[in-house]
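Quarterly update from the structural biology core.
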Amino acid sequence: MSKDKIRSDIIQKRNLLTEEFIEKNSNIIIGNLKTYIEKAQNIMIFMDMKNEVKITKLINLYLHKNFYIPKIFPDGDMKINMYNEKDLVLHKFGYYESNSPVFYNENILELVIVPAVAFDKSKNRIGFGKGYYDRFLHKIGGNPNKTLNIGICYDFQLLDEIPFENHDIKVDFVITEKRTIY
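Predicted structure, tokenized:
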């Protein structure tokens, strides 16, 4: 099956999720992340939208941690801002990002929570098809501190196998509400 077909099928399923399912399984996934969150101080999360895992709950659970969020640019670059609720603006794609002009060096990140439309058991991912995360993960791949990249999704988004290309970057782990793929 093509990436576009997988993307379409999974988004269609995700759009049908109930609030109860999202809340319950987001909490389980966040619980499954606990060990990794506790070991890191500088953590990049994504600003969840629609029926994605509600990862932004981490901000209120771990007040002593530094959370960073991505900002994408038309040239395909992605930089990070420190999370500050007062700086949030709605992006045209439907998620929030910071309007702060202050960006941080990505090498400070110890943990990156990576979104996807789908992952597979080999830790490949399918995003929205623009390559922002692949380029960003490639850029931080040379970090001497070795940033840990953890993909999160609901278990139905974890497939046996998805198509991948040479420029696609795998994550280190994938965590769902039911399992962790190492």
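Residues 152 and 175 are 5 Å apart (CA to CA).
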